[in-house]
């Protein structure tokens, strides 16, 4: 046998031995980095090459990834154009790596040390090596994916445990301030988050509710303003949110139930890892637990306020109930009936009717601004003033219009500018069948004479409590006759609206009174209320409804 033939056979034997040894090593490992590194060392050592790399690709994908390399400085991990990459890094030979005709990647080689071309035996060796390496690379890739999947699954289990623990901790805390530390502790344990800032949105302005490892700054509120309506977690762009990024914040998570009512700003992770999509999902779920806890505290606070308001309304209702007359004066000559229905538990209307003495009946009706305890207390003051001054009227030491003037001064001096009372009062003298009245800005009572004449009692002055009394209130007197009808009322009657938003009005009211001239006071009010109920939209009473009806009968000449 010739010397050259012996050398060739020896070279083939060495190649076979190298391939067999490489196959044993590759199949004995599931470490992708080790497998790729061993392939490169084998090829570069045998062929004396200074630059080489292995590029992998996903099945059915046109994108490539630089899996391992030697001698390629500043090479990108992701490769979009294979030919361009080959030219840029002077790779002169590419061997496909295939497993069962499926492309796994490429073995890319630079020039040999002596700049010789690759011989046919060397190319054959590279093809055989690539064939042997294909299944090992494919198995290692699957093993890595399985390992990553197991890590992800383990992380998910840990995160679910953390979320469950967070939910239980949030239930234990009894104040709003206590719920933020458990959130930070959960995020710190799972993602090593270094900073946290919670901002809540209110009708007037946003405010910082919690800050951990960050100095609160009003500029942070301004920089976060546009984030207060987000619905999903977002990564903070360094250009759009430069101030937040400078302070270390990387992601923003909404606090929301039905709507977003706040945000959680998360700082960088330690070490400086980026936030993956699963990380954002975990943050979103953790923030949801916080949002539910905060909403529960809000509902609890509202329940306490409602309870306090209900107690206040009960007190106001008790005050108001005691203000109304328990017995309405009435005899054979004067038939008096009253009606009162508040739009809410406590209204702002007031009425009164009592005998000053055996010959005089006092009537009053008023509408106080506001509702609840403030209105009921103001009504109580009004009644107390009336009771105090009425004795002077009985003793003829004070006139009705003087009483109204003094009450106006006291109301003005002791109430704020937004509190006032429209007021009407009258005294009926039974023996002379006269009525004297003063109207302080109230709806004019309607007096319908038996003859059909209609009078409205308008004389008086301005509503009580607006300005001090500089001029005496005016008054008017009318003679009453058998069959006359008088109605005192508040604007809840005339301003009742139908579905067309038309008011009941004074014209309809007078028409109804004229049709009830032969009925008693009680029957007249019943007809009025029935008519209002038919006229108005169902459950649309927006104001208190109050009326006093006086009917004269059997008065002898």
Account of the protein in words:
The structure is a single chain. The longest helix is centred in the first third of the chain and has 53 residues, at 120-172. Helix 4 packs antiparallel against helix 5 (180-191) and helix 5 (180-191) runs antiparallel to helix 8. The protein folds into three domains: 3-145, Beta-Lactamase (2-Layer Sandwich), CATH 3.30.450.40; 173-300, Beta-Lactamase, CATH 3.30.450; 324-552, Phosphatase 2c, domain 1 (4-Layer Sandwich). It is of the alpha+beta class and 557 residues long. 43% of the residues lie in helices and 23% in strands. The strands form four sheets. Strands 12, 13, 14, 15, 18 and 19 form a six-stranded mixed sheet that branches. It is built from 13 helices and 21 strands. The termini are far apart.
Provide the structure class: alpha+beta
Number-wise, the strands total 21
What fraction strand?
15-25%
Give the low-confidence spans.
Answer: 1-14
Q: Strand count, sense and closure of the main sheet?
A: 6 strands, mixed
The figure for the number of domains is 3
CATH architecture of the largest domain: 4-Layer Sandwich
Indicate the overall shape: rod-shaped
Mean model confidence by pLDDT: 83
Number of helices: 13
CATH topology call of the largest domain:
Phosphatase 2c, domain 1
